[in-house]
Specification:
Length: about 400
């Protein structure tokens, strides 16, 4: 079914500012040391949407790792190297430093890091699957995915169970390599998950990220893209389904500091239930030295019931006029009765019509995953969410 864009609601095409002072949101300090970040109080721009009281101490240092916080298992095709390394491994921290206190806390507190290495020139026929299953405790994690030059791989990181987790995930993408990462947040309703994902893209390399968020009490993800050489391409896709009482926050930052690189962002969310709260922040910075940049970011939200709230803030800052293109857009709308009537007039029952509209809204992003069993699982999850709702 074709994509359905909400007809009602506010639509904003963001203005482009050239040569203005740099916004603090896109020039956050970076440090491996948690002491370099003050404890947030909720009035800071980067924390104003986050319910700090529900982070269970991840933001103020009171959360302490417990045994059995999460169980991590890796399944990888032949030729892929899977390691557990110490903090002194040269690959740890190579993609970039933490940029907020929770990420710095995670970096300061983890004991061992997981490293998955895809050798140069390898083309994997099956995905690497990393299972992170919460077992009720508190955990601080660090994962590195290293892709050698001209290699091609798909990596799936699947979060399930119940836990309180702060983590950093690094993607090191070699020259000419192609990496697709699917990060699924399918936690139990009581889980808390905060993580920074940092990708360092090599010359003429391609990075595609698909972030899927369904579960958790609070999920706060911070995907970041950095370019190590010209010719890099990044595609960041995301879908989220926010239920009653859930807080799901995705804060993206793409740092175009290298010439002739490209980025494209498309995130979509559906919300239902009282106090369902979704936050999407899209920050793109095109620095003065990044001539030839081509970038666009899009966020769409579909509100299915009363009582849900969306905060969508696209930000685009440009310091050079020598670019190919740049733009951003955001739209939030209600589920339209007219859409249901159109389908029901053709003999489709109301529940089935509603399911088709929401499936159509997400269809383009689900197709980006490219892993058949995951795509089917996510469609089934969407159907289950809709069946559980009260309209």
């Amino acid at each position: 079914m074709a994509e359905t864009i909400p007809a009602a609601g506010a639509t904003t095409e963001g203005a482009i500012q050239v040569g203005q002072p740099r916004d603090a949101r896109v020039s956050a300090p970076a440090s491996y040391d948690v002491a370099d970040f003050p404890v947030p109080n909720g009035r800071e721009e980067e924390w104003r949407f986050t319910p700090l009281e529900r982070l269970r101490g991840l933001h103020d240092g009171t959360a302490v790792a417990t045994g059995g916080g999460v169980k991590v298992e890796v399944s990888a095709p032949a030729g892929v190297i899977v390691e557990t390394v110490g903090r002194d491994d040269a690959r740890v921290g190579k993609a970039g430093k933490p940029v907020d206190r929770v990420a710095a806390q995670a970096y300061s507190a983890f004991e061992k890091a997981g490293v998955v290495s895809i050798p140069k020139d390898a083309v994997l026929s099956e995905p690497v699957r990393i299972s992170v299953h919460g077992q009720g405790g508190v955990a601080f994690g660090h994962q590195v995915v290293e892709v050698g030059a001209f290699a091609e791989a798909v990596v799936v990181i699947d979060h399930t169970g119940d836990a309180t987790v702060a983590a950093n995930v690094e993607y090191l993408i070699g020259d000419g390599a192609k990496l697709t990462v699917v990060s699924i947040q399918d936690w139990d309703d009581t889980a808390v998950h905060a993580a920074q994902h940092t990708a360092l893209i090599g010359r003429d390399a391609t990075f595609k990220s698909v972030v899927v968020t369904f579960g958790g009490d609070v999920v706060r993800l911070h995907p970041r893209v950095l370019y190590g050489a010209p010719g890099g391409e990044a595609e960041l896709y995301g879908l989220y389904f926010t239920d009653e009482g859930q807080h799901q926050e995705h804060r993206l930052f793409i740092d175009h500091d290298t010439p002739h690189c490209r980025s494209n962002v498309a995130y979509k969310g559906a919300l239902q239930g009282r106090d369902a709260h979704a936050v999407w922040i899209g920050d793109v910075l095109i620095r003065a030295e990044a001539e030839g940049t081509d970038t666009y970011e899009l966020n769409r939200n579909l509100v299915l019931t009363d009582g849900a709230r969306v905060d969508s803030v696209p930000n685009l800052e440009i310091e050079t006029g020598e670019i190919v293109g740049a733009g951003h857009a955001s739209a939030t709308g209600r589920f339209e009765d007219e859409q249901l009537f159109y389908l029901m007039a053709r003999g489709i029952p109301a529940d089935e019509a509603r399911r088709l509209v929401v499936r159509g809204f997400f269809a383009e992003l689900i197709q980006q995953i490219g892993v058949a069993d995951l795509q089917e699982r996510l469609l089934e999850k969407i159907d289950a969410e809709l069946e559980a709702s009260v309209v």
